[in-house]
Specification:
alpha+beta, Jelly Rolls, seven-stranded antiparallel sheet, two-stranded antiparallel sheet, binds calcium ion, lectin, F-type lectin, Galactose-bd-like_sf
């Protein structure tokens, strides 16, 4: 029923745009029908793209952070081990508003962010984390969500973005308090 409605709407739209000053020929009708089918295929293709399988877009992408105590890339190495001695957690030094971000390489639809918190020590350090998204211009003005915390040991924090959030860069930043250390053992950006 939905398809039939779309077909009729698109067909009518094409008929209006290409209004006839004469009786339409069979060629005109076939031509319009072809354009209508083509439009529908594009609509279906877009819908399919929106509903495709989610994958971790951050895996082994370029990463950056405000200061470095443990390298930022450890958060996208595909290893979620939350024990510091495993050597797979990224961390900043202590500062007021530390941040970490990943470059996904190109713009994607982003559904949610999953953050693995440190498990062997100081999980409460993860608090008041703003997750924002930016396009090519690196203006992090699209808010995905906030984790107020404080985090629990080895917690998998999930921040769900508003529907159809799109961007290339995803940033985590602690926005409240002072003497903050941002430590993340894995950051997965789930999207398409
Ligand atoms: Ca890791």
């Amino acid at each position: 029923m939905y398809l039939l409605t779309v077909l009729l709407l698109v067909f009518c739209a094409h008929s209006n745009v290409h209004g006839y000053e004469r009786e339409p020929t069979t060629y005109d009708l076939i031509s319009n029908l072809t354009r209508s089918v083509s439009s529908i295929l594009h609509i279906l293709k877009d819908e399919k793209a929106d509903n495709g399988p989610l994958k971790n877009l951050a895996y082994k992408r370029e990463t950056y952070q405000s200061t470095t105590f443990a390298t930022s890339g450890k958060a996208v190495d595909g290893i979620s081990n939350s024990q510091w001695v495993a050597g797979s957690c990224a961390s900043t030094h202590s500062e007021q508003h530390p941040y970490w971000y990943v470059d996904l390489g190109k713009e994607h639809i982003i559904e949610r962010i999953r953050i693995t918190n440190r498990g062997d020590c100081c999980p409460e350090r993860l608090h008041d984390v703003d997750v924002t998204v930016a396009g090519h211009d690196k203006r992090f003005d699209a808010v995905c969500g906030t984790f107020s915390g404080p985090g629990k040991a080895s917690e998998k924090v999930v921040v769900q973005c508003p529907k159809r959030t799109k961007g290339r860069y995803v940033r985590l930043q602690i926005t409240k308090g002072s003497n903050n250390v941002l430590t993340v053992c894995e950051v997965e950006v789930m999207g398409r």
